[in-house]
Amino acid sequence: MNIKSNKFWVIVIAAVLALCLVAVGIWTWWRNSQPEEEGLIAVVRLDGRIVAAVDLNKVTENYTQTFSGESGNSNTVEFAPGQVRVHDATCPDQICVSQGWADRTTLLPIACLPNSLIVEVAAAQDLGLDSISR
Q1: 20, 36 contact by CB (below 8 A)
Q2: The CATH fold of domain 40-127
Q3: Would the pLDDT of 128 be above 60?
Q4: What pLDDT, on the 0 to 100 scale, is given for residue 133?
């Protein structure tokens, strides 16, 4: 094989990787430089109904709240400044617990399908909520 051809491909691959790293760096910088969203809300839905909506920007210390569904199963949700997670659940697979913390950068909601619980983080204006409950 031609040595000049190998050098060319090494340079092309290195340039593409460098561009990818620069793009990720710029995206990370841009995402972190955005001002905190006003009214960052954690919405807890149980059996398809909103059972809690907590303004995460107003939470000053961690606290938990337990939600029980019609089936008798329950989930303990932990609220912290700017983030939320399912701390404990009675479901057999514990996927909702292993999903960890959700915050303003989380794209997917936390879901516990066996217990019909969904926790999502969104801006208040996106949800159309008039008031916030704790």
Answers
A1: no
A2: mini-chromosome maintenance (MCM) complex, domain 2 (2.60.320)
A3: no
A4: 47
